[in-house]
Amino acid sequence: QPFLAPLLANPRLQIVLCGAGSSAFAGRALAPWLRERTGRDVVAYGTTDIVANPLQYLDPDRPTLLVSFARSGNSPESVATVELADQLLPESYHLMLVCNPDSRLAQYAHQRGNVCSLVMPQG
């Protein structure tokens, strides 16, 4: 709540759900429901798409909450997506839902102040 509340108070916030493979599917399945329930700008993209052409999917003129779904948390495209967001967006924030507490994404979260990481049970 302390991490998300100030972000969600900003009406300009764009929420980008992303992941690789079945994790991308989770974001695509959730995005319409979140849009309808919250009235927020919620989109979902595969991390392979974002990495291939980041400025087509990430808007530097808007604060962005990148919600990363990751089972292993080690997919190169998932790690590259969060790194690109931090490089290209003046206001980037991350909510990482990972199953592996020792993953590269979890380690990235520990090094940054703009990240909230939640370790989910595997299975």
UniProtKB/TrEMBL annotation:
One term of GO molecular function: carbohydrate derivative binding
- GO annotation terms (biological process): carbohydrate derivative metabolic process
Q: Which residues form the SIS domain?
A: 4-123
Recorded hits in SUPFAM superfamilies, A to Z, give:
SIS domain
**UniProt entry keywords in alphabetical sequence:** Repeat
Protein biosynthesis found in the keyword field: no
Q: Does the keyword Repeat apply?
A: yes
Listed InterPro entries? GlmS/AgaS_SIS (IPR035466), SIS_dom (IPR001347), SIS_dom_sf (IPR046348)
Q: Which domain of life is it from?
A: Bacteria
Quote the protein name from its UniProt record. SIS domain-containing protein
Q: Which organism is it from?
A: Serratia marcescens
